[in-house]
Design brief:
The complex is a heterodimer of chains A (about 130) and B (about 375). Chain A is mostly beta strands. In chain A, about 0% of the residues lie in helices and about 40% in strands. Classes of the chains: A mainly beta (about 130), B alpha/beta (about 375). Strand 7 (about 85-90) of chain A pairs antiparallel with strand 9 of chain B, so a sheet runs across the interface.
Chain lengths: ~130, ~375
């Protein structure tokens, strides 16, 4: 699995997201800044949905590099407890079933769903009742 | 300097789409109108601050207006650009160094959503490649959480848009001047849940200019004194939730709304002016989408979180309500030319304070008016005018 950029995922299976912990304040941000001020830390694999929307139209290219064939996705802000809230697509749940507070799990996904050999992006999947 | 900075002239090029006219042309149009309104000539202008995000350097307009050698400073500050130009102009006069100048803002954006690139915001390229360099996502997610926390319905969002188009019918400078029925607004296709297409403003074109004067100069010009009691510009506080944020801080108590640049700019404007939210007769609040107006009502101190549901249902923010909001239809009806948008609000406030609002005039001889803009990546500018 090839990540869309270096330093986003850990090398484990399954991978985790890599955040950046401010060496002075302890504040965690994502992605991890390249500066020495931040120490890379693995982020929790499970969290809850903090807020969301549905991306209903294809974003402009550039900068969007996804497939021409567009299908809407859930844009999620996921709270990883005690760490940070990260923004990423949420898959595996019907739009009308999405609720703030629902449990979700980190699961990188291909940028182009039709091309599993392409790059993977940070993403989450819903846990529990999703149909 | 003694006394207040006053706004003695206003000009506007209608917002929307004007093919064949550059953004700069629209800015020049607005400046000429504002100078005529103030009864002054370009050579009298001692300084200018010009705001434009995507339509070129404002100072190049000296070519059209006259090569007087005037000091002309360009301002680029996201959606707060116009407010920042006005703030800077105010400070130039307050310093005692100048007594007459202009703040001008114009823009011209391509159709469709804003096309921001990650590098412009110090973000990695992948953030844009995955499709997250999209302002509408943030705005929708912010209201989605707010609706759940404070019981705001989608219908209330629809009422904001309905009011905007209804007010704009009477605003000659507005772009979308046809009323749209609430049920049509709610039934329109979703753009970013919970917003339908009528609940987002569109990038647009337009130009606005304001002539600023010291109080002494304003009296000499014999203009009604519209006093700029406060003009503030602020950036974001810790833990805020902003547009183009790959991550947001976790906070211990997340049951309250977070701090925002708007809250800081607003509180400072009220403090500086000695005027409170209850003293304001009308307000222009950034409404790049319907929920922004809702949240900004609370962030600017006009109501408690959650009260908006009742306020909209009972018409408190209508032209004849207790606090008319976005009397010219706001960004929803005027569109958003970034450099001009904040100054449009102030233009509209001056029109209202002069009693020149025609079919959209706030009744009861308003004395105070408030304006507020918010933009990426967490900037806000507020003004308070008093007649």
């Amino acid at each position: 699995m090839r990540a869309i950029a270096e330093g986003l995922f850990t090398d484990e299976t399954p991978p985790r997201l890599i955040g950046g912990k401010d060496r002075e304040t302890g504040r965690i941000v994502f992605p991890c800044p390249s500066a020495k001020t931040h120490e890379p830390v693995p982020l929790a694999s499970e969290g809850t949905l903090w807020s969301y929307t549905v991306q209903r139209y294809r974003p402009k290219t550039p900068p969007y590099a996804g497939p021409d064939a567009f299908s809407p996705w859930v844009v999620a802000y996921v709270e990883l407890p005690g760490q940070v809230i990260v923004e990423a697509p949420l898959y595996g749940v019907a739009f009308e079933k999405v609720t703030i507070g629902m449990p979700v799990r980190f699961s990188p996904a291909p940028l182009n769903p039709q091309d599993a050999d392409g790059v993977f992006i940070p993403a989450f999947v819903a846990m529990g009742d999703t149909e | 300097m003694s006394g207040d900075v006053c706004i003695v002239g206003i000009g506007i090029h209608p917002f929307g789409r004007t093919d064949g006219l550059s953004g700069l042309d629209q800015g020049v149009f607005a400046v000429r109108q504002a100078l005529a309104d103030a009864g002054v000539e370009w050579p009298q202008v001692q300084f200018a601050y010009g705001a434009s995000d995507a339509a070129g350097n404002p100072d190049t307009m000296v070519d059209r207006l006259g090569l007087t050698g005037v000091q002309f400073i360009n301002v680029r500050n996201g959606c707060a650009a116009g407010g920042s130009a006005l703030f800077s102009g105010q400070m130039a006069i307050k310093s005692g160094e100048f007594e007459l100048g202009i703040a001008v803002g114009f823009d011209k954006h391509p159709r469709g959503a804003f096309n921001a690139l990650p590098a412009e915001y110090n973000l990695p390229d992948w953030y844009g490649e995955v499709g997250q360099m999209v302002t509408t996502q943030f705005f929708a997610a912010k209201i989605m959480r707010y609706m759940q926390m404070f019981g705001i319905s989608q219908e209330t969002l629809g009422r904001v848009a309905e009011k905007a188009f209804r007010n704009a019918v009477h605003a000659p400078h507005a772009w979308r001047r046809e009323p749209v029925a609430l049920e049509d607004i709610l039934a329109a296709p979703l753009v970013s849940d919970p917003y339908t297409k009528y609940m987002f403003c569109s990038p647009a074109e337009g130009g606005v200019a304001l002539v600023l004067a010291s109080e002494k100069k304003a009296r000499e010009l014999g203009k009604p004194l519209i006093r700029l009691k406060a003009a503030t510009m602020r950036t974001r506080p810790p833990h805020s939730f902003e547009v183009f944020a790959p991550s947001v801080d976790v906070v211990e108590d997340d049951t309250k709304p977070r701090g925002t640049a708007s809250r800081i700019a607003s509180a400072d404007a009220f403090r500086l002016s000695g005027i409170g939210p209850g003293d304001i007769d009308l307000a222009q609040l950034q409404d790049t989408e319907a929920g922004a107006e809702i949240m900004h009502m609370a962030e600017n101190g006009f109501c408690a979180d959650g009260e908006q549901e009742k306020w909209l249902a009972e018409g408190h923010t209508e032209i004849n309500g207790a606090l008319p909001v976005n009397t010219d239809g706001g960004c929803l009806a005027c569109g958003e030319p970034i450099g001009a948008s904040g100054l449009r609000q102030v233009y509209e406030n001056v029109v209202q304070l002069r009693g020149d609002g025609g079919g959209r005039q706030v009744p009861g001889d308003p004395k105070t008016a408030y304006s507020h803009v918010y933009g990426a990546p967490g900037v806000s500018a507020v003004t308070i005018l008093e007649r």
